[in-house]
Prior knowledge:
Layout: E1 2-4, H1 7-21, E2 28-32, H2 37-50, E3 53-57, H3 67-73, E4 78-82, H4 96-108, E5 116-120, H5 132-135, E6 139-143, E7 154-158
Parallel strand pairs: 2-3, 2-4, 4-5, 5-6
Antiparallel strand pairs: 1-7, 6-7
Helix pairs in contact: 1-2, 3-4
Amino acid sequence: xxFTGSGTESDNLAILGYARAMAKHGKHIVTTSIEHHAxxxxxxxxxxxxxxxxxxxxxxPNGIVDPKKVLDAIREDTTIVSxxxxxxxxxxxxxxxxxxxxxxxxxxxxxxxxxALHTDACQxxxxxxxxxxxxxxxxxxxxxxxxxxxxxxxLLYVKRGTKLQPxxx
Length: 169
């Protein structure tokens, strides 16, 4: 667990930190069209300023991403996939566990050996169980203000062995 100053900082540490740490293995990153700006803008920064290729997967008309479309976007050079657990505007619950299980299988089969799954679970914390093993995530973002904690506090769960480049030195 890494304590941060906000959910935004946690999202940025997960995305920028992992993508930069794994850049030698690939510069392809994947997210969905309904992510929080803390995720989308970090991904867009990597694309615009650091030479990464970004694939943005659209959601279905019901506001839920099709796990197959996320998996189809993953390539051998993909390093990070970020899919929020609960959308902050429309409240849809995304199939993160399904995506996570499928990514684990891809990794086991050697098809995407360096990909990590991140989820922004800030909106989910007060309502859903957040068992990182059942969600099959490598990184999970939370913030204090959504669970009656203080503003200015965030948390990033990082699975043991997941490498991050720090944002600050």
